[in-house]
Amino acid sequence: MMMTQQHRESSSESINKHFDAGKYVRYTAEQVEALERVYAECPKPSSLRRQQLIRECPILSNIEPKQIKVWFQNRRCREKQRKEASRLQTVNRKLTAMNKLLMEENDRLQKQVSHLVCENGYMRQQLQSASAANTDASCESVVTTPQHSLRDANNPAGLLSIAEETLAEFLSKATGTAVDWVQMPGMKPGPDSVGIFAISHSCSGVAARACGLVSLEPTKIAEILKDRPSWFRDCRSLEVFTMFPAGNGGTIELIYTQIYAPTTLAPARDFWTLRYTTSLDNGSLVVCERSLSGSGAGPNAAAASQFVRAEILPSGYLIRPCEGGGSIIHIVDHLNLEAWSVPEVLRPLYESSKGVAQKMTIAALRYIRQIAQETSGEVVYGLGRQPAVLRTFSQRLSRGFNDAVNGFNDNGWSIMNCDGAEDVIVAVNSTKNLCATSSLSTSLSLVGGILCAKASMLLQNVPPAVLVRFLREHRSEWADFNVDAYSAAALKASSFAYPGMRPTRFTGSQIIMPLGHTIEHEEMLEVIRLEGHSLAQEDAFVSRDIHLLQICSGIDDNAVGACSELVFAPIDEMFPDDAPLLPSGFRIIPLDAKSCDTRDNLTRHRTLDLTSSLEVGPATKQGSGDASSCHNMRSVLTIAFQFPFENSLLDNIAAMARQYVRSVISSVQRVAMAISPSGLSPTAGPKLSSGSPEALTLAQWICQSYSYHLGTELLRTDSDGGDSVLKSLWHHPDAILCCSLKSLPVFIFANQAGLDMLETTLVALQDITLDKIFDETGRKVLFSEFAKIMEQGFGCLPAGICMSTMGRHISYEQAIAWKVLAAEEGTVHCLAFSFVNWSFV
């Protein structure tokens, strides 16, 4: 009996001791302060650190180490909950604003439906009546903008009347039914999208509209958007000639704007407009603009001789402040670009609302969001450079390339005498100086000047994004390293500038170092290092590396109407922020694609010289008609390369430049033939030919080896037949890649998900080595598991991080590796990887 009682007492003491160790402890203010100081330095202290804390802080001596551990766990949990609550509040504010925006859009669409129903009834009544002859197009939803005479623009009262009328018409487009808006293809609205985008349907001119939420105040947004050259890359200049105040604290401005031509075979555009800035009664800020009549309005006619006067119909920005901060912005761009003034083959560029949407409307909203993220500190700097500096580099590269393509007389350009062939235009600028600033450290004085060789050509059935990606990733396929070295040497005060340059061997290797990118990765700024070595024996071990500053844009295949560009300029390895730039590069602008049900009528000629197509005359229309009966994806490629020269070497440099551009054109044509789909629609599936025995056989080997090693099927059981296996493997949701079993394994195959993950193409895939896609941890895991994989035939790698060719990080839940066996021979053909549930970080 006594033993039982003692056992109960010892059990009770043990239980009480257990509860004392884990009971809730009420900390004093001094204790909390001491713990908070440690938490600020180390949120997760080790056991030794906690014991040291108790020894060093007498006020914590009465607290058990386990209770200290619990306090830090609770503190980390509270911090996580606080951050999550803050994030959810931000998301909730965005969703609330987006919901309000969508409700307004829904109301506008309902009004538009009612308007169209009324129009339909009116048309039926007119068709059924005897006076059908009196029917005209007045009921169509076409915005007709009256031209205002210069007499009205000569007095403030007349200008104010025009401004108020412009405001009313702009608001009817931004929030009303004055234009039939249809959703921009490939731009679905949602909480993660930049905004809601639409283009005009059956409207005079070309028009685009955007709505979005931006975390900036209205006045800041208006200030940014009014500075059009800062965000609209095609804007050469904007001059305010007159400005005077209007009612409601607003202003009226008379503005002259010049717009670059996108290609060498079309004239540039200019605008003479009235811009009206005012506030509405509901607190919204409006900036609206329209053209004033008179082709001679603006600066003197001589300055505008290289321009075609185009028209801005009532357009602008409606900026409404949000309750929780930020603004909701409506953007409308409505233009008449006078398509009659360009060759017929180019008219789709000037009649496409999608092109206006990508270049102006969407670009404006993206730029504002970029500034907002930079202001909030969300943007990571590249190589220590501030975001504003990186933006300036991109703008200077784009502007320098546009100047070269257009070759304006007032900028010092003049055409050299041609050699009889019109395929390459050579222009000279003896007044141009590469000096970006007055700083002596960056100035470059040239005895001669700058020479530009440029050309345009028509591409057929060549996706612009794919071509630009290839040109970016495979520079050695089209570029001459010694020509790059010549341009680079001109930037240095050395004995290697101009004549007597020492011969250099290009190693074939280029290293891409990312500097920065826009928030949606539609444009990337990077430094390219081309590795070279001198061929001279005395300098055999001297590096002759060349560095290029480069922007690459438009590489998203789903961006409808987007222009693809690759523009670069030689720089020093440690280039300053104001380094002189001499840009060269490529621009590919898609024409409206046309489609058909048959594939047999596809043209076999993938590239054509655009100048020869212009000489066809009436036959051009016939070709266009043929194109409309089949799938015919067309685009215009513009090439421009700039070279410095000395006066004594002008003729030699001109001959070299002309020949070099012709060789680049030949290389691009060869590349275009290689990457052009062979008789298949771009949406038909894999770029591999379905009849290719190599592709079919490899797909069967991959699936059979997976089943043999892992005991389960890689594909669904209904995938019978080689063609079906290849198709199912190509569309498999996991990224499946195969690499060779060499001393330096390179990838030899990838399905669509694999190409998307690596952000590359089948052509460029074979230049990617296995070790390049894994981070340091991933490489260690792979090396440790490699022997096991080769011994048992397969292995599973844990979740990790890998990297795309664009430098983006990718997370995956698991990676499965297995040996692919050649069925007939039983030998190991390659090593396959399947990255499960991958996503960009």
Automatic annotation (TrEMBL):
<dbReference type="InterPro" id="IPR002913">
    <property type="entry name" value="START_lipid-bd_dom"/>
</dbReference>
<keyword id="KW-0805">Transcription regulation</keyword>
<keyword id="KW-0175">Coiled coil</keyword>
<feature type="DNA-binding region" description="Homeobox">
    <location>
        <begin position="28"/>
        <end position="83"/>
    </location>
</feature>
<dbReference type="Pfam" id="PF08670">
    <property type="entry name" value="MEKHLA"/>
</dbReference>
<keyword id="KW-0539">Nucleus</keyword>
<dbReference type="GO" id="GO:0003700">
    <property type="term" value="F:DNA-binding transcription factor activity"/>
</dbReference>
<comment type="similarity">
    <text>Belongs to the HD-ZIP homeobox family. Class III subfamily.</text>
</comment>
<dbReference type="GO" id="GO:0008289">
    <property type="term" value="F:lipid binding"/>
</dbReference>
<keyword id="KW-0238">DNA-binding</keyword>
<dbReference type="GO" id="GO:0003677">
    <property type="term" value="F:DNA binding"/>
</dbReference>
<protein>
    <submittedName>
        <fullName>Homeobox-leucine zipper protein like</fullName>
    </submittedName>
</protein>
<dbReference type="InterPro" id="IPR044830">
    <property type="entry name" value="HD-Zip_III"/>
</dbReference>
<feature type="domain" description="Homeobox">
    <location>
        <begin position="26"/>
        <end position="82"/>
    </location>
</feature>
<dbReference type="InterPro" id="IPR009057">
    <property type="entry name" value="Homeodomain-like_sf"/>
</dbReference>
<dbReference type="InterPro" id="IPR001356">
    <property type="entry name" value="HD"/>
</dbReference>
<dbReference type="Pfam" id="PF00046">
    <property type="entry name" value="Homeodomain"/>
</dbReference>
<dbReference type="InterPro" id="IPR023393">
    <property type="entry name" value="START-like_dom_sf"/>
</dbReference>
<keyword id="KW-0804">Transcription</keyword>
<keyword id="KW-0371">Homeobox</keyword>
<feature type="coiled-coil region">
    <location>
        <begin position="92"/>
        <end position="119"/>
    </location>
</feature>
<keyword id="KW-0221">Differentiation</keyword>
<feature type="domain" description="START">
    <location>
        <begin position="152"/>
        <end position="380"/>
    </location>
</feature>
<dbReference type="Pfam" id="PF01852">
    <property type="entry name" value="START"/>
</dbReference>
<dbReference type="GO" id="GO:0030154">
    <property type="term" value="P:cell differentiation"/>
</dbReference>
<dbReference type="GO" id="GO:0005634">
    <property type="term" value="C:nucleus"/>
</dbReference>
<dbReference type="InterPro" id="IPR013978">
    <property type="entry name" value="MEKHLA"/>
</dbReference>
